[in-house]
Amino acid sequence: MAKLLIKSGCILRGTVNISSAKNAILPVIAASLLSGERCILNEVPYLEDVKVMGEVIKSIGARFEEFDKESIAIIASELSNPEPTYELIRKMRASFLVMGPMLSRIGRVRISLPGGCAIGTRPIDLHLKGFAAMGAAISIGHGFIEAYAKKLKGESIYLDFPSVGATENIMMAACLADGVTTIENAAEEPEIVDLANFLSNMGAIIRGAGTDTIKIEGVKELRGAAHTAIPDRIEGGTFMIAAAATGGDVLVDSVVPEHLKPVTAKLKEMGVEVTEYERAIRVKSCGCLNPTDIKTMPYPGFPTDMQSQMMSAMCVAKGTSIATETVFENRFMHINELKLMGAKIKVDGRSAIIEGSERLSGAKVKATDLRAGAALTIAGLCAEGYTEISDIYHIERGYIGLEGKLRKLGADIERIEE
Ligand code: EPU
Q1: Which atom of ligand 1 is found nearest the CA of 122?
Q2: 315 has catalytic annotation
Q3: Hey, whose CA ends up nearest to atom 22 of ligand 1?
Q4: Which of 10, 39, 117, 315 is catalytic?
Q5: Residues 269-303 pLDDT 10s
Q6: Which of 204, 324, 403, 417 has its Cβ near the most Cβ atoms within 10 Å?
Q7: End-to-end Cα spacing for the chain
């Protein structure tokens, strides 16, 4: 098992290039199933989750070809198997995003219930309510969902919560349905807009993506299209916080500054100098951070995927900060690990009260999930002595070459195989 070994005392300086977004490319791969023609995806981040998604669509009968370093072709001319491989669906929740396209394209699917995961129970009731409203017959038993629909029908669907996955799944299913589907209280995340752009290039008729009401007019068929996903705002934000916490000066390049507004606003509150350019953000910090409070919310609120990284910065701020998690019920697992590094954090329900101290101390810690791993990496950069992070396969699900990018910025960090 690989580990990350981080030695303290670095101040990050230089330029870092941000990759395409994992959370944008995964739904786009699923959406490729809606056409029988070839789809080409460029600048694909070859992360573990992307590979799993490739295996999922192969298990349905699509072709997934990696034809050069960062491009893939997907050809779903025939979807011969309505049952994606059980182990793959259990491995990664996002693989559930194939349900909408399959139902719409071949009218049937038998798929494993994705189950809970480290950050919460993560039900899929909103996805299923949407499909049922569109006329799908759905039954659940023995850990599987079976769904049939000769032809989905456009319907008005109100989401009780603006779920990213449910919005994506229903939007994809609606593209080939009869009539108009309206999703109200839809998620507004940039990844939704990116998916809508890809679907539109395939010939779908979608209005309102990026607002809380999305209208999709069903068409008979979709054509193949090429796509490059948006930059990864969470990877970008992770480097912004790492620069701020280490007292560094980093140009976070190839990002959309608009997508990172909540992180920019909070870092400014913490006394960090943040300058926005057209496609880049410069973060300059003296290392003396003010405390702040955050509350995670659907976009454009502060992203839950940045809560743990921000908490690491709060641990080295001068004063008391509060982080409130409202999106997932169990996204505080990094706290016990941060405590091993000397962090002073108390949990009160959905809030964590963080008493900042000048320095953390290096320790052996465990990445309990993807973003927790990123948070511990930031904490390790700010800690005295050595920090050893185990279970870094979580980190590698969502960050391309994190240690290499940090090393280029001056960090003393090494990936060691055991
Ligand atoms: N929810 C329901 N019912 C549903 C769907 C969701 O109750 O049918 C609840 C969830 O349990 C959760 C909340 O709604 O409490 C938000 O879940 P959402 O569906 O919005 O999240 P997701 O689509 O499963 C995506 C990202 C997550 C990110 C969330 C929130 C992908 C592949 N995953 O998950 O990313 O945290 O949106 O922004 O896009 C990560 O990258 O580390 C990650 C976990």
Answers
A1: 11
A2: no
A3: 165
A4: 117
A5: 999 999 999 999 999 999 899 999 999 999 999 99
A6: 204
A7: 5
